[in-house]
Amino acid sequence: MSKRRDGAGDGPVDEATLRQYAIKLLARRDHARAELALKMRRKFGDEAPLEAVLGWCEEHDFLDDRRFAGFFVRSRIERGQGPLRIRAELREKGVAEPLVAEALDETDCDWFALAREVHGRRFRQAPADRKEKAKQLRFLQSRGFDAEQSFAALDAFED
Q1: Alpha-carbon distance 13 to 48, whole Å?
Q2: pLDDT class for 159, splitting at 50, 70, 90?
Q3: Exposure pattern of 17-28 as b/e (b: 16+ CB <10 Å)?
Q4: What does the domain layout of the chain look like in residue ranges?
Q5: Which residues form the RecX third three-helical domain (predicted)?
């Protein structure tokens, strides 16, 4: 007789179990409120009293979207991702737009310098033709840099 992993069919789940699971997830890494709610809803179903548990986590400062957004932005900058991609990923995780904007504004990141650095790590030489230049621009834009930052990185590399 094996125990089901999804939590479904085990009857109603009490708040203590939900809190324990939330803390287990938050001990591994910070989560956005919406992201944590989604994970818990998948495991325990829609009937579980998630709002009370999420409120408890916020009340005890285990869960904080502002803190999550700040950590997330810094970690993505270290990975060499640009502001457009970071913004999209935070929105996907359910972080409110004002918090996303605040987290991006609080970084003292020079996005142009980061785009140059990321480009220099990936490409060792200046583009030889238009096809190669387009390829390098697509790479930078896929990393989340806007057109202005991408072109500036290529122009600096060619100099």
Answers
A1: 6
A2: low
A3: ebbebbeebeee
A4: 15-59, 65-106, 111-158
A5: 110-154
